[in-house]
């Protein structure tokens, strides 16, 4: 029997250290409710789509909710809300239509999905109403909160991720065919952005901010880092 070859000259390489699955934290999100929000042109919808795909690939059942709309009733309300022909719409009517669409999606989709233990991912939610109809439009927070309490019942998100972007970058990302909300001008949209930042400051336990000015891949990395950190607390 020959002596074993000295270690250094062995042709067999030591196994590479096993790389733990970087997305192994995702399955813990089943049964949670996360909102993606931010100004028009923030790129949140791209990040939302990426996150939903990653969660599904990790085996998490995902309920995707897009506002306004997401139900047959909600899609009809969406048409009224975004059609530039309705520029006489009063602010309270606008706020209540967004909430009406939301009340329907809460009842029809969000609450049942949470009950089934799915991860609910919403592209916009009450945080949008606070920013657009509240901070930018001028409606008092208390009024919006009162209607939201009626519309959402106990469907409150575990985390709201705000994709923050400066106006110049946001404007460069928009489709030139602007809808009724996008047509509201630079000052309005500056107040929307500030509204989101103020909300995040008021509710640090439920909000997190992602710098969305960077490239899509960099934003995805920071989105994943922040959601993982916040949801594992
Ligand atoms: P949408 O085409 O869905 O925009 P995005 O892809 O940016 O989500 O249009 C929704 C518009 O409605 C958008 O300009 C934000 C606005 N909005 C409000 O003003 N209040 C709300 O409560 C919601 C949900 C959206």
Q: How would you characterize this protein structure?
A:
There is one protein chain. The protein is of the alpha/beta class and about 230 residues long. It has one domain (about 25-230): P-loop containing nucleotide triphosphate hydrolases (Rossmann fold), CATH 3.40.50.300. Helix content is about 50%, strand content about 10%. It is built from eight helices and five strands, in the order E-H-E-H-H-E-H-H-E-H-H-E-H. It has helices at about 45-55, 70-80, 90-115, 125-135, 140-150, 165-175, 185-200, 215-230, and strands at about 35, 60-65, 120-125, 160-165, 205-210. Strands 2-3-1-4-5 form a five-stranded parallel sheet, sandwiched between helices. The chain starts with about 30 loop residues before the first strand and ends with a helix. The model has no long low-confidence stretch (mean pLDDT about 95). The structure holds thymidine-5'-diphosphate. Thymidine-5'-diphosphate (TYD) binds near residues 123, 128, 129, 181 and 182.
């Amino acid at each position: 029997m020959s002596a074993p070859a000295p270690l250094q000259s062995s042709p067999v390489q030591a196994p590479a250290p096993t790389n733990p699955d970087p997305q192994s934290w995702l399955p813990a999100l089943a049964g949670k409710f996360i909102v993606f929000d931010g100004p028009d042109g923030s790129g949140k919808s791209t990040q939302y789509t990426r996150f939903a795909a990653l969660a599904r690939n990790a085996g998490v059942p995902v309920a995707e909710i897009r506002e306004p709309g997401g139900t047959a009733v909600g899609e009809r309300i969406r048409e009224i809300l975004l059609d530039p022909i309705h520029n006489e719409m009063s602010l309270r009517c606008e706020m209540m239509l967004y909430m009406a669409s939301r009340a329907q999606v809460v009842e029809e989709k969000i609450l049942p999905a949470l009950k089934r233990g799915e991860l609910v991912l919403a592209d916009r939610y009450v945080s949008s109403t606070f920013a657009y109809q509240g901070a930018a439009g001028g409606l008092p927070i208390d009024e919006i909160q009162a209607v939201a309490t009626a519309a959402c019942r106990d469907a409150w998100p575990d985390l709201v991720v705000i994709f923050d972007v400066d106006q110049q970058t946001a404007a460069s990302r928009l489709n030139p065919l602007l809808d009724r909300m996008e047509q509201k001008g630079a000052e309005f949209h500056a107040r929307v952005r500030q509204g989101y930042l103020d909300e995040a400051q008021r509710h640090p336990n439920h909000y997190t901010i992602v710098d969305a000015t960077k490239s899509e891949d960099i934003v995805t990395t920071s989105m994943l880092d922040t959601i993982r950190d916040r949801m594992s607390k």
